Amino acid sequence: MSGVRDGHVIVVDLGFGDAGKGATVDWLCSRDGGAPVSAVVRFNGGAQAAHNVIAEGRHHTFAQFGSGTFSDVPTLLSRHMLVEPIALAGEARQLAALGVADPLRLVRIDGRALLTTPIHIAANRAREDARGSSRHGSCGRGIGETARYAMEFDAPRVEDCLRPSVLAEKLLLLAAHYGPLIAPGAHRYEPIADLVDMYREFVAAVRVVGPGELAALASRGRLIFEGAQGVLLDEWRGFPPHTTWSTVEPANACALLAEIDATAFTLGVTRTYATRHGAGPFPTEDPELRVPEPHNTHGPYQGSFRRGHADPLLLRYAVAACGGVDGLAVTHLDAPSTVRAATAYRTVDGVLTDLPPSAGRDLDRQRRLTDLLYAAEPVLAELPADRVGWFHEQTGVPVVLTSDGADRAARVATSAVSVR
Question: Is 51 labeled as catalytic in the residue annotation?
Answer without folding.
Answer: yes
